[in-house]
Amino acid sequence: MSETRAALAPQFDDAEQQQEASSLGMWIFLATEIMFFGGLFTGYAVYRSAYPAAFADASRRLDMVLGGTNTAVLLSSSLTMALAVHSSQKGNSRKLVGFLLFTMLLGSVFLGIKFFEYFQKF
Asked: Which end of the chain is more exposed for a tag (fewer CB within 10 A), N or C?
């Protein structure tokens, strides 16, 4: 199995230092995401417990079919994007273009559903 190595960036002395820096960067990114989403979910929990009637009323106004469809579209577009990356890594440009176009189509479907949802409400 062939192994591809990233080129050494000029600010690093060796590949090990570059690998350590990239690992540290990834851990810092993950920590910031945990803090961001932790705050987001904490705020949600606080407001949901403070205003249960408002959340119950709002949940009755949700369209489960459109929401479920949008979730499926988002998951599918994540899959097609991952397949595009895989195709790029394998050097298959024909599949890459196809997966990217399909991802763009799914993104357009997502926006169309959102437009329809918001148009109904406003």
From this structure: N
Interhelix angle 64-90/93-121, nearest 10 degrees: 160
Q: Tell me the C-alpha to C-alpha distance, in Å, between residue 118 and each of 13, 58, 113, 115.
A: 53, 14, 9, 5
What are residue 30's phi and psi, to 5 degrees?
A: -60, -40
Query: What gap in Å lies between CA 44 and CA 52, rounded to an integer?
Result: 11
Asked if 115 and 122 count as a contact pair (C-beta separation under 8 A), the reply is: no
Lookup: tokens for 46: 């606080």
Contact criterion met (CB below 8 Å) for 8 and 15: yes
Per-residue pLDDT in tens (0 to 9) along the chain, 122 residues: 445 566 888 888 888 888 899 899 999 999 999 999 999 999 999 999 999 999 999 999 888 999 999 999 999 999 999 999 999 999 999 999 999 999 999 999 999 999 999 888 88
